[in-house]
Amino acid sequence: MKKYLSIIFISFLFLFSAFAKAQQEPTTVIKTKGRYINNTVELRFFPDRKSTLKLAFKSGFIIERANGSAGNFVEIGRTTPYSEAQWLEVMNAAPNEDKMNEIELAMDFYLDVLEDNGGTMSFNDGIGELKNQKAAEDFQLMISLLTAIKNAEAAKGLGFSYVDQTVANGVDYTYRVKLVAPSTIYKIESIPFSIKAINNSDALKNKVYIKTGDTELGFVWNEHPDLSGVDVERTINGKNVKLNKAPIYAIRGSDYDGPKRTGFDEDSLVNYQKYTYRFYAQTLFGERVQFAEVTGMPRDKKPPQQPFLKQPQHAQPDEVHIEWEMQAPIAGDFKGFAISRSEENNGTFTLLHDKLLPQTARKFIDKSFLMDKTNYYLVQAVDTANNVSSSFPVAVTLIDSIPPSKPIFIKGKIDSTGVVTVDIKKNPEADLMGYRLYRSNAAEHEFSAIKEGFLSIDSMGRDVKTVYKDTVTLKSLTPYIYYRVEALDFNHNTSEFSEILKVKRPDKIAPTTPVFKKIKSTEDVIELQFALSKSIDVKEQILYRKTDLKAPWEKYQILKNDQLTFIDKNVKKGTIYYYSMRAIDESENASEYAVSVQGKTYKTGVRPPVEDLRITTKNGEVTLVWSYKDLNEETYFVIYKKNKDGQFVRHGRSLKLRFSESEKNKSTYAVKVFTTDGGQSKLSKEVSF
Fold this sequence. Notes:
The protein has 689 residues and is mainly beta.
């Protein structure tokens, strides 16, 4: 029986690790747990101190119930421990020796608690002796509780069990358990327990996860709050054999807050053979239940030896030869080799053939490699269990004699501090490695390499550097700095030099000022003649115009570098226009404004003649009628009449498009247009009777 007690103590220790801490607190609790079974609610309840137990064993427990979770509690029953005769009766009725021992252990504990065993303390041991005595009492309490969990008859004999047979299906109930006799030492707190009266066949199911290994299987499960003490069984030679010597518990500290999982492993199994396992645990109500059954099969997890890949060779223009070695004899479960290729050493590798190469293969020829990209190769060894081992990826150096195309400059400029920025148009070649930049102070001098921007072989495909910075002195007799660039690919094929890029140093000297030589105004246009700036670095020469002498100059026209005249047709008669010019050089320096000139179109005074002149007579009166499209308030008409000498002389004046007089003076007539500003037209066609 001592051996049995030891096993129980070790197996269930984790469930009651908090009891020692509770001994130091002034409050003691009675916890309750229950289940709905066979239209009844079966309860288990446990005090946590020996002094509380003694009161319970003497006077018993009160069971109270409330409908719902917040109703009024009503006493529904009481429990008391068995009498000595009842203990003997249930021991004799035990189905086997183990059950009888459990009942006897519970009875011994019951009788021991009822006895007043005072502790002793020696002067030499002091407080340590009291601690030892307290530990022994805790041990006895724990053993009794564990026995009550393991044996339903023992729980009933200790008064820890009650069955409520007055419940209705589907109703929520809350229970709490109290002592009949109050404690003079502790405040007794009854912890309520709520339950819904429904059947739940899956309440004790618990999923077990399988981890497959090489000749071994591992099992992991999350701890179930209503199960403890797991046993694992497997059928061996037609019999169910328990694989663990003692129930499996997870022992952890009271402050542990991580995942609550437990596991079991079995090794020395046969690979690819199925094994079925059943998992059992003890419930709070003294029942051993199966909570899971799983089937697993160990597999071969050991990969083949790692192949050694030699440097791939570009042996032919359209062939890359791959060769590898195996350092040790090949195992009996070896299947073959797989060859893959990628553009990056850590990228996605693509298989180059449909079927595995045979065990004897040590060479492979790739005819689908990418000529203008990086090609990394990988050799993998595969066994019959599809375990794979890989060589290290190795890139091939391709034989490429085609250089990149001739580079092209986009632009170049120098800032005020002498920093030159050169921008190159990126070449289209996929294997472009980068550029080498050259510089000279004169186009006909030798160019020296000053900058390089190359990618590494592992960086192929990334953006090549196309913008370069250089620093030059601004104090130089040469106004320009000259650059050339060449492109290189990853096989170090070099392009031809680019065209020369001429970049002008910053210039603080303004260009010479243009000069007007002559201005000519006509009736419709103003013609300007001038001499442009003679500075060699002039970028543009600008003509300015305005109509208000006090207003700022407005940009009017950009002149050509060889232009000597400009005819301004966008003018209005009578408006005075002022003109000036200025030159801008490549450094954005501007000359002074040219001495301004002015021009104005003038009016000739010639007006268009009248049209459609007609003559009529009626009732002794002669009437002249005509039309005139430019008629306005400043226009009037003079009528001319031939005299006896046949000459036209002024005869009359009209503000309208008609003139009348007596028929007695009839003759030959003509009309002329006049304006108040002195303008006049030619004489119209003559009319007569």
